[in-house]
Design brief:
Layout lengths: L2 H16 L3 H15 L3 E7 L5 H9 L16 E5 L4 E6 L18 E4 L5 H5 L12 E7 L2 H4 L2 E5 L23 E7 L6 H13 L3 E6 L7 H15 L4 E4 L2 H10 L2 H7 L1 H13 L1 H38 L1 H56 L4 H39 L38 H24 L8 H115 L16
Parallel strand pairs: 1-6, 1-7, 2-5, 7-8, 8-9
Antiparallel strand pairs: 2-6, 3-4, 3-5
Helix pairs in contact: 1-2, 1-11, 1-15, 2-11, 3-8, 8-9, 10-11, 11-12, 11-15, 12-13, 12-15, 13-15, 14-15
Length: 618
């Protein structure tokens, strides 16, 4: 009968060993020993004052557990078969450091016999316990047929006192029981705490019975029982509810009243316990193995699911993420290289055009001033003063143009360097451009233009030509009046005409001198413009080449570092991906085996339970 479920349980134990879970292996071994034990261990739990101790007394029809003495139950009470009534306080040595509690009866215990009239004090923890000892419980032996058939009853403290019993809770743990009886009296419906306790127990224990006690105290206990069954169904608790009255059971036993015994409800409860005892090696064992399988597989699968989820997260933040980041850095550096080259070319082109326009505008202003000056001034008189002004103005224009060139080149360097801001350090080239000290000496020399002078002989000749015509014209006119051709009037008129000719010729010579000077200055300013623009272009091209070489070297350094980082990230990502893929295959293989073990355990009862979620949530 035990062959099938025992094989499954042994397979679960081997699975625990394969996963390195010694704690789970210990639990499985304890469950194996428990299921092979022919006795039926019944754990009686519940809140205080619900009639747990009286229930045990009524089941075996003997005052085994103290009732109504006013003392607080501190230690669990184990009631088993004995040839003669006995009582003892069993206590294990204190657990070694690092040794888990909860295995009180897995080690050698020391039993201290106590008198039967001292059982109540023993249950209260007042006698039989050694200070500083390990887990303890009270063990009572009675010669009863039901106990002799293999029934072992465990009375526990109230649930609100469980936290105070320390390691003794291991003796009363539901996992160590074959059947769990939760006792709740008929004076009220099941409380929220009791329903929560039932939910907790049924997750780890397949055989739970709700005993509704004290039906003799409540007239409408049937209504309470029906409502409790509804609560169990709504909460999803797979537990049978059996109403009983311990008082009626004990009274019926004393009077040997079969009818009263049937009215107490205990025949149904005892029949359930006997059925569980008879079916422990088959039905109960199968259900227990099924529950153990679920618990073990859940605990073994949880870290595997967590590891898979962690690996999926590492794919986003681990070597693969760093590889993608390095690839983005390579692409960004390529775009940065294109941007800074375009920026440098565009800014130098704009600079050359702006420099030419600036110098052309300054020379035009100088030429306008020259035109305005020599519209009235005589080059023969103002040339020296004008030459100093012109040379000074041209030097100032050249210096202003060079100063603007320096400022714009510095601005261009910063504009190009701004493309490298994301790399987090200063990338400006270590250079400085200053105003040339010999800018005045580099200007073309202004040659004095050849200017015609109005000499005395020229004035005499011009005056004679003008006076001759006037004297002849007016002399002929005076002859008509009977006067000679040369007379005082014609001579005077000739002198006037000679003076006018000299003045007109002097003005014409002045305008020719002014035009000659303007033309010469225009040629000189053009020569100045060509030379200065050539110097500015050469300086701008030198700056362009210097910036190009500097940022090209910087780009190569960054590219070398980024490519090296990319190679390292790719190698790390390839290695990590290979290791992760191998580990994922191992995890999925383990999960497949866990699923097979779980499925094998579920087939023991012939019913399908809800499948376990063995894959990580996406």
């Amino acid at each position: 009968m035990a062959g099938i479920w025992l094989d499954v349980l042994d397979e679960i134990a081997r699975t625990c060993t394969a996963h390195g879970r010694g704690d789970l292996l210990q639990t499985v071994r304890q469950k194996r020993a428990q299921l092979l034990d022919p006795t039926l261990r019944v754990l009686v739990v519940g809140e205080p004052n619900q009639g747990k101790s009286q229930l045990i007394n009524a089941i075996i029809n003997a005052p085994a557990c103290p009732v109504g003495d006013g003392r607080t139950t501190v230690l669990p009470t184990v009631v088993r078969h004995a040839e003669a009534p006995t009582a003892a306080v069993a206590q294990a040595p204190p657990p070694a450091p690092g040794h888990p509690t909860g295995t009180a009866d897995a080690v050698a215990v020391e039993r201290t016999p106590v008198a039967l009239n001292q059982v109540a004090a023993g249950v209260a923890g007042l006698v039989g316990r050694r200070p500083g000892g390990g887990p303890a419980y009270v063990e009572i032996g009675l010669p009863r047929a039901l106990l002799g058939a293999g029934l072992v009853l465990v009375d526990t403290p109230g649930t609100d006192e469980v936290t105070g019993i320390g390691a003794a809770a291991s003796v009363a743990a539901p996992a160590r029981a074959d059947t769990v009886l939760l006792v709740s009296d008929s004076t009220r419906e099941l409380s929220v705490a009791e329903l929560n306790m039932l939910l907790h127990i049924t997750r780890s224990h397949p055989n739970v019975v709700v005993v509704q006690s004290k039906t003799d105290l409540v007239a409408d206990w049937r209504t309470v029982a029906e409502r409790n069954r509804q609560h169990l169904a709504e909460a999803g608790v797979p537990a049978t509810l059996i109403p009983v009255s311990a008082a009626l059971r004990l009274r019926a036993a004393a009077a040997d009243d079969r009818g009263l015994n049937a009215e107490s409800g205990f025949p149904a409860l005892i029949a359930r316990l006997q059925r569980d005892l008879a079916g422990k090696a088959d039905h109960l064992a199968r259900a227990a193995v099924q529950t153990v399988a679920r618990t073990v597989v859940e605990q073994l699968a949880a870290p595997l699911r967590a590891e898979l989820a962690t690996q999926e997260a590492e794919e986003q933040s681990g070597p693969i993420s760093r590889l993608h980041a390095a690839q983005r850095e390579v692409d960004e550096l390529r775009r940065c290289s294109t941007r800074w080259q375009n920026t440098l070319t565009d800014e130098i082109t704009d600079l050359l055009a702006d420099l030419e326009y600036d110098l052309r505008d300054r020379t035009r202003q100088i030429l306008r001033a020259v035109d305005e000056a020599f519209d009235t001034a005589d080059p023969l008189v103002a040339w020296d003063t004008f030459q100093d002004w012109l040379e000074r103005s041209l030097v100032e224009a050249a210096e202003a143009n060079h100063e603007w060139l320096i400022q714009r080149c510095d601005w261009i360097a910063r504009r190009v360097a701004a493309n490298f801001d994301r790399y987090g350090y200063d990338v400006l080239p270590p250079w400085s451009m200053t105003m040339p000290d010999d800018i005045g000496e580099r200007l073309p020399e202004l040659q004095r233009p050849t200017i015609d002078r109005f000499t005395t002989g020229q004035k005499l000749f011009t005056g004679m030509k003008g006076s001759y015509g006037g004297m002849l014209m007016f002399g002929l006119a005076t002859t008509l009046a009977g006067m000679p051709m040369i007379n005082p009037v014609s001579v005077g008129i000739g002198a006037l005409f000679g003076g006018k000719s000299i003045r007109d010729e002097s003005k014409q010579l002045l305008r020719r001198r002014q035009a000659t000077v303007k033309t010469a200055i225009q040629r000189h300013v053009d020569d100045f413009f060509v030379r200065i623009i050539r110097d500015c272009r050469d300086a701008a091209r030198q700056v362009q080449r210097m910036l190009r070489d500097h940022f090209t070297g910087l780009t190569e350094e960054l590219q070398e570092a980024i490519v090296q980082s990319f190679r390292s990230a790719k190698q790390e990502a390839d290695t990590d991906a290979s290791l992760r893929e191998q580990r994922q295959r191992e995890i999925r293989l383990k999960m497949t085996r866990l699923a097979a073990v779980y499925e094998q355990a579920q087939q023991l009862t012939g019913a399908r339970s809800a499948p376990l979620l063995l894959e990580p949530q996406g």
